[in-house]
Amino acid sequence: MKLYFLRHGLAEDLADSDFARELTPRGRRRVAQSAQVMRQLNLRPQRIVSSPRLRARQTADIISAALDRPVALADEVNFGFDLDDISSLTQDLGSGAEIMFVGHNPDMSLVVSQLTGVSVSMKKGGLARVDVTDGEAAQGELVWLIAPKVFDALAGAGAPAAAEPASPTTPAQKLPATPHRLQSLIQHRWSPLGFDRERGIDKATLLSILEAGRWAASSSNLQPWRFIVAAKEDPAEFQKLLSVIKEGNQPWAQHAAVLMIAVARKYRQPGVVNRHAGYDLGQAIAQMVLQALDHDIYTHQMGGFYPDKARDAYQIPDDYEPYTAVAMAYRTTALEHLSDGHRQREAAQRQRHPLADLVFSGGWARPADFLP
Ligand SMILES: Cc1cc2nc3c(=O)[nH]c(=O)nc-3n(C[C@H](O)[C@H](O)[C@H](O)COP(=O)(O)O)c2cc1C
Question: Which of 68, 118, 125, 153 is deepest in the core (most CB within 10 A)?
């Protein structure tokens, strides 16, 4: 069995907690470079098992994308990773299997040393391959150890990775800082301002996104949602829709590929209010947002638009309510066209309230006792 041990890439020093420390932009670039070398080396781990700490998960995600192998999070690979953990995480694998562990020092260096009898000190982003023979999981042969500098050279960089770009840096992704497992699209969704101005959304893709909204759940299956859509291929329609978006959002929203106004029918039947209309519309949009991301298209929802202007411009009937505007586009990290303030916002950490402020049991504001 081939075991790969990868220490996470360069990470920032500070964060709200050690769990939340992210890879630096340089760390991301170097891991992405290493991942290309791993591809060339034809590494085929059945799975990549990562520590749940954010810097390890981000490292594992980059490798996963390059090698097209799944990532599993396992607390065993967190601090305290040891030979028993390796045995338990490999017990279902056959003798020809490959598996990669992504974790932290000193444990990574320690397990490789203990397995092989060779004193090993792994740098951040370093990778070791250890082959173990059946039934001897506690003993293995160190086949190679690649230091990050060697990865740089193998990737053709020939020198340490380039200097950090000027601050603020635009993140490749803004993965949430969470120890809990999230489905990949949910994990990767966020609301960027940097839209690729060159790239439109083709018709089949747009239809797929709209179809995802159509299949949302709704109270009594009333499907109260309606969508007014303008693609930038039709400049007059696009400008018309842009003109109902508030001035604060226009500087970035104007670069979207598609703009949309999301509208809901307010009544179940004449005179009977549908109090779930907004809820149902939100579900439809949430499905569209994730479907869009499945096509690598990002969305940015906006409350900042003029509902009355929209009503006038599109003759929206009184029994319908325009709730939000939505911008969709492929993303770019080249943000020269945005203001400093917008660039800073793009680089800022994403924040959320803790679950304990949100999830109660037994009474209002009593955090549920199953919470960590
Ligand atoms: C109903 C709604 C209205 C929003 N309005 C705006 C807006 O007018 N302008 C804006 O820049 N972002 C807007 N947002 C985006 C939020 O600011 C964003 O979702 C939030 O900060 C969380 O960030 P994330 O989506 O990157 O996780 C809106 C989002 C929603 C769901």
Answer: 125
